[in-house]
Write a structure and sequence with these properties.
The complex is a heterodimer. By secondary structure, chain A is mostly helical. Chain A contains 25 helices and four strands. Chain A folds into two domains: about 45-505, Cytochrome c oxidase-like, subunit I domain (Cytochrome C Oxidase, Chain A), CATH 1.20.210.10; about 685-844, Four Helix Bundle (Hemerythrin (Met), subunit A) (Up-down Bundle), CATH 1.20.120. Chain A has helices at about 15-30, 45-70, 80-115, 125-145, 160-165, 170-200, 210-245, 255-290, 300-310, 325-340, 340-355, 365-385, 390-395, 400-430, 435-460, 480-505, 545-550, 555-560, 595-610, 615-635, 665-695, 710-735, 735-765, 775-805, 815-844; strands at about 575, 585-590, 645-650, 655. In chain A, the strands form two sheets. In chain A, strands 1-2 form a two-stranded antiparallel sheet. In chain A, strands 3-4 form a two-stranded antiparallel ribbon. The termini of chain A are far apart. By secondary structure, chain B is mainly alpha-helical. Chain B has one domain (about 10-120). Chain B contains three helices and no strands. Chain B is elongated. The chains are: A mainly alpha, B mainly alpha. At the A-B interface, α9 and α10 of A face α1 and α3 of B.
Chain lengths: ~850, ~120
Amino acid sequence: MKCDDPEPLARAPSAEVRHAQEERLLNAWATPIGWRYWSEVNNTRVGLWYTVAACGFFLFGGILALLMRIQLAVPDNDFLTAEQYNQVFTLHGSVMMFLFAVPIFEALSILVLPQMLGARDLPFPRLSAFGFWSFLIGGIFVCGSIFFGAAPQGGWFMYPPLTTRHQTGIGADIWLLGLSFIEIASIAAAVELIVGVVKCRAPGMRINLIPLYSWYILVVGGMILFAFPPLIAGDLLMEMERAFDWPFFDPARGGDPLLWQHLFWIFGHPEVYIVFLPSVALMAMIVPTFARTPMAGYSWVVLAAVGTGFLSFGLWVHHMFTTGLPGISIGIFSAASQAVAIPTGIQIFCFLATLMIGRVTRSVCLLFAFAGLATFVLGGLTGVMVAVAPFDFQAHDTYFVVGHLHYVLVGGTIFPIVAGFYYFFPLVGGKKLSERLGRVAFWLMLVGFNVAFLPMHWTGLLGMPRRVFTYPANLGFDTLNMNSTFGAFVLAAGFLVFVWDVVRPKKGQVMSERNPWGGGTLEWLSEMPGQPWGVRSIPEIDSRYPLWDQPNFVRDVDEGRFYMPDAEEGLRETLVTTSIDARPIQCLRVPGPTFLTLYAAVFTGGVFIFSTYHWWTAATVSGVLALGTIIIWLWTGTAWIPEKNEKDVGLGLTLPIYVSGPDAVGWWAMFITMLGDMTAFMSLVFGYFFYWTIHEDFPPEDATGPGLLWPLTGGSLLLGAWWMTLCARRWNKQDRPAAFYFAIVSAAVLSSLGSMALICGPSTTGLDPTSHVYPATVWILAGWTVFHVTLGIIMQLYCAARRLAGRMTCRYDADMVNVALYWHFMALTVFITVAVIAGFPLVA
Amino acid sequence: MTKTSTSRESLWMLTIAPTIWALHFLVSYVTAAVWCAKYAGDGGSLGGVRIAIAVYTVTALIGIAITGWVGYRRHTFGASSLPHDADTPEDRHRFMGFATLLLSGLSAVATLFVASVAVFIENCD
């Protein structure tokens, strides 16, 4: 059954017209050459750089793993010192999680998602580029530290008080600041991908027709928004303790190290699913292609993706079963940890069912997908074992857990990603990887992995603790460890074969045929090699597998019979559609190449890197330069007023070029970013109530501040600023310039006064943040609010300047609408801050 | 406005049942944690916490059941069967209903998992 969608043009444009269209499209989407190549922001380039960089970090992390295995091969080994070993295992975990597992999902998604959705690009290409450069700079900074013996040593979880009291070098600062920088880049990518999936699908790609990969990306993007901010909040607290002696984790002054564990694992457990679900998503694309049949149980897979996304946030305390929590708390988290096995199992059954009902063709891709499924199931089963608290009490901090987590992560992430490499490789260079070398790599990896990690379960049950740099002989660990080391090198040999297959010269190799695996989804429209425009004309979608089901589909796309077959104005454009039925609503002009994103990342990186060394002046200068660069980027690259209101996009459809409000991608980006921001803020609020729950004296009875007067004054002024911002939006829309300028300037003035009043609360009542955790917590909440209000003032002044410069009008008001949205979140932040710091002591 | 028009549909619908699970999970955990830390102490009785969790559970299950029922009604809208993959507003409507129904089922099971802890554990040990 099919509804009344527009049909492609019955007759293709003439050859001359098509040629001219292709010329214009090529010009608009051409990749700059020479050194300007690095100014490109198009998803195909940035996605490729991202992938290469993430794989580079993966190989670095792999070498660190081999160093560990050499050290542990024999008892009492002195290949590495204890300190070197601590640095190596800390960096191995941190690199694999932060610099490979999450970024590779973002990289692959930036690379293939637009093509899968039938979009020319994602909505914010410059944001992708900024995220990539931030990731690269932060990653090199963190990894480079080991060459100077300065790497972090506290494990990938950085538990205080070890990292706050006993490791005084800059290693922990490098971890906290370097990775916070990368986490911000991850959130940027999440915003890009969520908005991409929701708003940039090809027309007709209703929510029941979207590729399963994009369902997973939507879920994982949402998870990043709620998982990463608690860690950013935790990083902030720990860095404040390390740099300024604010005692958040110091029990002697009312702090508590367990708060860090909560914040870390509220991030850390969803993180496992953040890296696992995208890999399952790859399998959800690979399995139907090689089974030659649509995915069985599409709705069930959606259930599994969404359900896992939610349940994964109810598991964090299972990393803390041995911290002395009450049995009922442990029980609640144990129950949720068991429950998450249900959706996880459902998707695996769907894959198996698809393979059973299909006509499976042999391929290296599928071998790796099978290996991933089998390995992950084993890891999942040991996961159910450690979710049982009494078993966990025994296995905690032993090699059993190391075995378990590697089965989960290698099976659930690495093998599917390798499968994804074999699958998508032809999209990048137009050539396939070798099936012969692939099979060699597969067997080496599969055998090596199991020889390395299966024995670790026994090593752990025999009692070998994790994170020890050596062990005495004759405790029963010797043979098992030697076995693991041998396996690790076989596994590494497998990766070496794989890497050789990727980098070997392929000049003599013929181009792959188009759609080499016979896939049914839109990315396989790509020509071999692909064109920079992504898709020749943006098709109307009628099916989950258009290449299988829609007649003459490839021909119609290629001949420009669908939407936007041209770039008449020489600009980069893509379609924006509605979130449910993908009805076209805007012809979105996306910005082209620029070095601004690189400069912005360098200067933002400077803030974090200089702060590591406490070079505050340099950090401040870098921060000002970053702010300036970002303002120039926004001023010149966003919310352009177009030369005409509407544009004919083909098939009789005319769409607006400029949209503001909830239909606009920028509004969604602001909304999603602020959801993440609010999560970080709520994590700080959680800290306040955490201290209240577990400490008798919080707030202390003799606390002198912050009192009621200043917080209430500040709160009232800031809520007034919010109100005036809303008035500014309204009066701008009514085209009343004088009223607009009055409102926006008043809002900025009220914001400044309100910030000062809020700071006066703790500062005039003698709250010294280094004396006790209570004043430190009040200060951090007030400081967070004031910092955000300061950004809000910059935004208010930006809107005033935009109108003054004629770049914002009553009709073209996206800037003002988005800033008003930001201020809604500010009002909530201010209200909660004042209610907590001024109101709660009255009722506590 | 038809029963399947876009304005009646939202991705947020999918999140209602799991959000109810999350709220149930959170309030159960916070109630127990605050009770044990502030009032009962180590080894103290859970007292009214178990009854509170029972009340939370019944409330959550009612909410999930209503969501699931709405999902079921949408899933069975008109005359069509799974897999709801046709390019029509009706099949999109049915798909969203079916996914809502499935998520309600999972949320109900997960809620009962959490609630079962209060059946077996009697104190703050």
